[in-house]
From TrEMBL:
Keyword Transmembrane helix among record annotations: no
UniProt keyword list: Hydrolase, Magnesium, Manganese, Metal-binding
UniProt source species: Shewanella japonica
Pfam families to which the protein is assigned, alphabetical: NUDIX
Protein name per the record: NUDIX hydrolase
Cofactor(s) named in the record: Mg(2+); Mn(2+)
Metal-binding found in the keyword field: yes
Location of the Nudix hydrolase domain: 28-160
N-terminal signal peptide: none
Domain of life: Bacteria
Amino acid sequence: MNAQQFNVHFALQNLSDNSSDIPIQQALRKAAVLIPLMEVDGQLHMLITRRALHLRAHPGQYSFPGGKVDKQDNSIIETALREAEEEIGLKQSNVDVIGQFPAHATFTGFRITPIVGIIKQPFEIKIDPGEVSETFWVPLSFFTTASNRYQLRYMRDGQTFDVHYMPYKGKFIWGVTAAIIDLLCKHISTTDKS
C-alpha cells in the first residue's frame, strides 16, 4: 500500500468512538503519539521507537514518538509533532497529518491520542538518548497481514480485556502500541473488520 492508497482507505472509514476497553478508575494524564509513516519504493513503512530504559513510564517498550501534553501545546496534534521532533529529529514541517484516532487509556495513567502522519521527505533520525534507545522501520504490509497481529484475553482486578502483541524480527511490540497498530490496520483494511 502506498501513501495515496492509504489516504483513500483512511478517509473512507468511520472512526470508532471507543478504542480502549481497559477499566481505568483514576484521572488520566493527556498524551499524544505520532504514527509516522513514510513511503519507500512505493510501499509505506512505519517508524517504531524503543523507549529508553531509565524512563519511569514504559521503560524499554516499543512505542511511537510522543509524550505528555505540555501547557504550551495548542492542540493534541501539536503535542505529537513536538515530541516527534524532540525524540527523533523529525521536523514538524515534514509531516502531513491526515487524522487521529480516539484516545487509548493505559493502566499507567495516560490517555494517549494517536495522530497519523505521512512523512513527506526522508530525514536523518537524530535520537534523543534521554527518551529513545533505538528506532527501526517496519513495512506496513507486515502489520496489515492479520496473521502477524495477535491478542490474548488478560484478567486484572477481576476484569478481562485484550492485550495485543506483534513479534517482529526479535522485537516484541505489545500493549497500547500494538493496540494502536491493530486499530490502524483494521481501519484501513477493506477485508479485516473483526
